[in-house]
């Protein structure tokens, strides 16, 4: 089972062999630090939106309701879907979803197991940067070998909050400037350190970490105390002979990266973006931003 800390998996029903999901695109208010709230856009009341988990061969119908003040669409990033279901109305026959209406995206899962994403693809610069994004995981029905004991999905995001002087973090409700060329708050699954969730493991376990990045920035993610192997990129498995052993991996904009490691060095180990500005909250000096910790139980 894939766990997205702080983010639920999207529930579904099955009718005549089809898996039915529902996403509601709407304005949301979310807490990125204790007492620090942002006005954002998201799905089903949160940003990032709920994680969608399916299997190869599933036939899915994802009904997307639009409760936003402007048209929207959803792009299934990295998935092989029919042109009309791809969610880019300005180019494709895929329709935009007007406010107060819905559209049913229906397609068969033909990709192999892997890590993907979904996000808005209409008025993209505004809607993506306001938070319309989520994870899309194609699970392995064979529970691949070697066995994975812990499987975490981590979505990386960044926003520029307005109304705060640089070097200041205070409680309140803040708007996002989606057109800013820089960000002042950096998040994992919608939260900034120290409000991010810990990633518990046990000694000897094989752990997979899945990273996703829809935003406009790249993030070199560094893991302390361990070496890991890159086992997949953009939802495509890396053959064992080509897997690289490393301790820092670049998660570029628009990409997903999977890494695996053996939990063989007990402790409380940081996992963070290595851009110094990305591990601060609005340039404050204490550690913050795009940081979490792997913790041995």
TrEMBL record:
Keywords, alphabetical: Copper, Metal-binding, Oxidoreductase
InterPro entries per the UniProt record, alphabetical: Cu-oxidase-like_N, Cu-oxidase_C, Cu-oxidase_fam, Cupredoxin
Natural source organism: Paenibacillus yanchengensis
Top-rank lineage group of the source organism: Bacteria
Keyword Metal-binding: yes
CDD domains cross-referenced by the UniProt entry: CuRO_D2_2dMcoN_like
Name recorded for this polypeptide: Multicopper oxidase family protein
Metal-binding among keywords: yes
Gene3D superfamilies the record matches: Cupredoxins - blue copper proteins
Domain annotation Plastocyanin-like: ranges: 31-142, 180-285
